[in-house]
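Look over this record as teaching material.
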Amino acid sequence: MATKPRIIAIEEHYLDPEVKAHFSDADATKQPYVAERLDNLSNLRIKEMDECGIDFQVLSHGAPSLQKLDAETGVRLARGANDRLNEAVRRHPNRFAGFAALPTADPKAAADELERTVTKFSFKGAMVHGLTNGLFLDDKRFWPIFERAAALDVPLYMHPANPSPVVADAYYKDYAKDFPILLRAGWGFTVETATQGIRLVLSGVFDKYPGLKIILGHLGEGLPFLLWRIDSALSREGNKPLDFRKLFCDHFWITTSGFFSNPALLCCVQEMGVDRIIFSVDYPFVPNQPAVDWIPHIPLCEEDKIKILSGNVERLLKL
């Protein structure tokens, strides 16, 4: 009888109580089902993992996170939040690992906190949420974080956050009242996070730190579907020479978080290769069950399914 493949999910969120206190009006705190699960790093979470057959989660702080705070506050909160996450992982080491929360408003402190959590706690990298007080992370003042991640050989997971107020007003205000999710998972998250990914490729950070690894959720925030066109457009006369498509495929991994579509998955496999795709749920914003129900219907061979469900992430995160 065939052995059930291990299922590992890596965009699975929680909220630290001290960090959450700074965002009492956040959308996640207003949804009882989601809020209860964001606060739980024990019995309820593990019960729902077991019910669906998910063996392991890599835990990460949800949005909003430290990227929305000033440097002094972020540095102060990061250490406590990561210490508490480590305690949760230590209680259930066979079920959880951690991504660090970083106080990116102070890049040197963020790099040091990444190193502390990786070397002391065996965290698997870090997750950052959206812009840091209005700045994209390709800004060179943040490059010490990328330098440290490359040196430690751990990835940074670039997760969405709400668009800046200027963007929200210009792009979405006409429909925000009737369709508030449009600003977030419906479209706004994709636009802002895909832009973050594009800017990283254009910035030269991968030339400077060739070992740097980046993870994008939601099947790459749409970028795998656009790689050919972006690459073709950038090759036109007047643009600086750049192999955008190769740089993206060499340095990015993508996850299935909240995106369980066979046509979309197959496009990503064709563009990036199956070795760059990692299973995720986006729990608790997305329940575990729809993600797991999708697995038997993925139109790939068993070997490739196992790579997506666990093999690729075991290699990337050294699980």
